[in-house]
Amino acid sequence: AAAAAAGAIPLFVGSGTSGAAPAPAGCPSNPSFDFTIPTPVGPPTTTALSEGGVGYAALGADKKLYYVESSITGDPLVVSPLACLGGQAKDSPAVVQSLDGTPAFFVTAPNGTIYQRYTTTGNFSSLGAFTPVNNATTTNGPAAVQTADGQYHLFVRGTNGALYHGFRQTSSLSSWRFESLGGQIVGPVSAIVDGSRVLVAAATSTGSIYTITGSNFAWGPWTKVVNQVAGNSPTQVLTKTPPSLVRDPESGAITMYAVHQNFGLFAISKPAAAGFTGNLWFRIDSLLPSDARIAAATDGTNSIVYARFLDRPSGQTLTAYTQFTGSSWSSYFLAPYTCFNCNPVGVDTTAKSASAKTKLSPGAGKMSQMPKTKKVLG
Fold it and tell me: Which run of H or E residues covers position 4?
């Protein structure tokens, strides 16, 4: 991932739109290619899938939870049908691929209660109900991971501004225990499994990024990420929005992505079970606005960063993505299902793409290649 960041190139203004037919915004009763997310208002979130794909979740203007899976091995993306899981939530959801291969979801209700929902089949034909996570109230969306021992872990900002860690030790959905990890953070956090531990990254009101690593009731100190930007000063990337963490499934190396408080997307990488000290931030682009909320994922070779931001020229809030597919980062394109012509209507939805390594869950594994959508930023 560090090499990917080092190979970044400037992005340029583009034009052209998808040839897809307009799709109605709404919540399909079954996974479908024929709908789009009603103007996504929640920041995106992602999870890497074991077969090499990426799971993407976001909230719509209707406050419902939407989910789609993608292969990031090619450009444009290959996507599954859009699934709607309902609910009424705020901020960013959390999605994690469980050890059995099915996705698990966590959302924050308007009153601050966290809810959990689990799937029991890969094609969404069986969904558990939304149930509350006991002993937890938060002001933002949660972050979630599952460790090799089967435990689910949640990380949330408490109403007092501190970071809280929750874990579920049994199969009972009401068996959550929480502990305070201290600190004073803003917004949600990002979490990733790092060897036998969990790494969490958070931002503070000053824009500094801090990390903390550990497991149940055994956590190291908070550490500020202060590393020189390659070829530039200052010595750290200050941010207004939460960073995003990804792990290389082959080497275990971890990359952190962050949006600079002025503008631009940056990345810094570290080996597994090590710290970021001694490594450099790399500028991926100078275009991403400082208010962008991001989510990233990698399959070890290819990477993707989704970003939700206010597009000043149009006055619209957009969700876009940039891909690294072997040599450089792409321009930003509107993300699938986030606008009326960002869905794969009019293309073959019956066959799997030969380039995709993953069987995509919504819609019994059927996948469709996205038409090129409009380039944004410049």
Answer: helix 2-6
